Structures are given as C-alpha cells and as structure tokens.
C-alpha cells in the first residue's frame, strides 16, 4: 500500500483525534525536537573543569551500561535541608546573557522539517526529577511529607524560570508542540501518592503546559513507569499525547481517552527484546504482537527500541530489526 500522507501529516491526524492512514511512529514525534543550544541540557553538559553540570548546578555522571545515560552524581547532592533551598538554588545568570533571536536562527537551521517542531520544557528535567536531583530520593521524598510548603515554594521558583524560557521559545522558535516530562513513577507504582501529587506537582505541571496550550500548541507528556493513576490529570491539563510503558493498561487507557490522548507504546527499552538470548524472529514477533494489540484500538503511535551499553552493536542491530518490522506492518491496520 502506498502512503499518501507524510509521516508528519499522518501523525498530526492522530494527534488531532482523526483516523490515521497508517500506524504513526514515535520517532516522528521526536525528530523535530529543537532546543536553545546556549542552554545546558537539563541533564548537564561537560564543563571546563571536566565535570558534567546543568544550569542549576546539579552534577551528573554517565552510566556506560545504560548507553551513557546521565544520572545525578550519587552521594553528592547539593541540598540536604529543603528549608535552605534559597541559599543553594539560584536563578541562573546565563538566562540574562542569551541572545534568543540569534540562537533561534542558528538552531532552526538544523531542524528536521519532516518532524513536528517540538521544544522541551524549561531548564529542569521535570519538577519531581529536579527535586530528586537536588536532594536524592530519600531526602527529597521526606521533604514532600515533612516540609510540603517549602517544596511547593521551590517548585514555584522553578516554574517561574520555566515560564520565562517558555515565553522566549514561543516568541523566537514558533514551536508546534511542547514536550513536558517528569518521571514521577517506577515501573510498578508512582513514587508519590495521589494526594502529594495533587498538592505539590500537579499545579506546576498544569501551569507550565497551559502557557503552550493557550498559544495553540500540541503537547506531549513523557512519564516512564506505572503512571496510569495520573493519566486523567494530564488529559485534563490538555496534553495530547503520552509515551506509555506496558506496565500500564495501554488498551484500557486508549479506550477511555482515545480521541483526546494519543498513546505512544510498544517495545520496552529494557524488556524482552533487549535480552541477549532473544532471537531476531522473537524480536520481530514482539513488534507484531504490540501492533496487533494496540493499533486496532486507535489513538495509537508505535514506539520501541532497546538500550545497550556504550559500543554495544547488538543493541543497534536489534533496533534495526524493530524498525524494519514496524515499517513492514504499519499499513496492515487502517483501510
């Protein structure tokens, strides 16, 4: 079957609650990502002293076994008492030094026109994640229970910075989609209760995405793990898409929110397809399984790929099988 719609056009149909011509790919969601190259990535960049830090001063280290992915440096968190956050976490001076017009022109020259022009939110990798990067999970979670008002004031401080940079993105980059992300869940459960979520994190999530929705943008939410209990809240905020892992009831969520929320799901990065004993045919069969399960329900976007250690050619090969099998089968579901 010959496709009449481009990848971008086909994906936009699904995101706008319409029927797809063929199963869209999560790669199309991300291929148009643009960031201001003057801003250090929220997970840091290599500094002159040889250390990796982000704009707020968090130091990161990379994990070779996870493809070089960065994590806050264990045991050396910058904040040990949430009541002292104002003494430690400051508004970055760099924000006043950026020539946004010049940087936007430079960055947009490199954009992929076949992808949706997507910008990631703010200077933090989410609000929950920012708190954990400042304090570590033990102290960060304790702070949410013992000093919620201090945590909320810190979240408001971060929100104001993110709204400031969001305004600049809207003015100079003219994006089509906002990417909000904040990994607040483990594979089996959220890290916080619904009560804590609604009290501390939901208000800042809502306020940040509102800036972009009011400007007419689409919005993509990223949250790994078992995020299902909080899905109704991101739908209510106006998010149009969410990347889901299979620990969630993906079919049930699509049936409940289809037409309002596009769910991107498929092959898990650390699951069956990443195991060294899994054969090529088993990997390809897994791609067909998830397509057969989710695509007929609609409001669906295939995503999938495996992670491996730095230099692991088997991960590259497996991702090739996954992408090839998706391409061979993406036309089988919609007529």
Question: Could you characterize the architecture of this molecule?
Answer:
With 335 residues, this protein is of the alpha/beta class. The protein folds into two domains: 1-30 and 244-335, no CATH class; 31-243, TIM Barrel (Alpha-Beta Barrel). It is built from eleven helices and ten strands. It has helices at residues 7-15, 26-30, 85-88, 100-108, 127-146, 148-172, 194-213, 231-237, 250-257, 280-294, 313-329, and strands at 45-46, 52-53, 59-63, 69-72, 118-120, 177-181, 218-222, 241-243, 262-267, 300-304. The strands form two sheets. The chain has a six-stranded parallel beta sheet with strand order 5-6-7-8-9-10. It has a four-stranded antiparallel beta sheet with strand order 1-2-3-4. Helix 5 packs antiparallel against helix 6 (148-172) and helix 10 (280-294) crosses helix 11. The radius of gyration is 20 Å and the shape is globular. The protein starts with 6 loop residues before the first helix and ends in a 6-residue tail after the last helix. The mean pLDDT is 93.
